[in-house]
Amino acid sequence: MFDQIKSVGAVAGLMRDKERLRRAADTLTRRLAEVRATGDAGVGAVRVTAAGDMTIVSVELSPALAASIVDEESRAACERLIAEAANEALRRARALAQGEVTRLAREMGLPDLPGLGGLLPGV
To answer: How many Cβ atoms from other residues are within 10 Å of residue 72's Cβ?
Structure first.
């Protein structure tokens, strides 16, 4: 119970310091744009890299996969691999983003608040 009261007090204090809160939001935005997570599919045939802000940064196809796209069936298989790799990269980026939120909250003196990472759009 005391921890919950302490948490409410920390959050209330932060809300009074709007400039510090704005700086923290700016810091988080920068960190999320910089952090990278990569997902792959087809034993590395497709690699997709996503940023912590949930944007896809790059898509790489292995030369062997690219050379094998000769018909509709192989194109569809390649598209499935790209989607699989992108989803994996985004899952990893989401986990990294939640870690960044938790780390920044600790830096600001906030206790562990369950679900804090869920406040981010797309996370």
So the answer is: 8
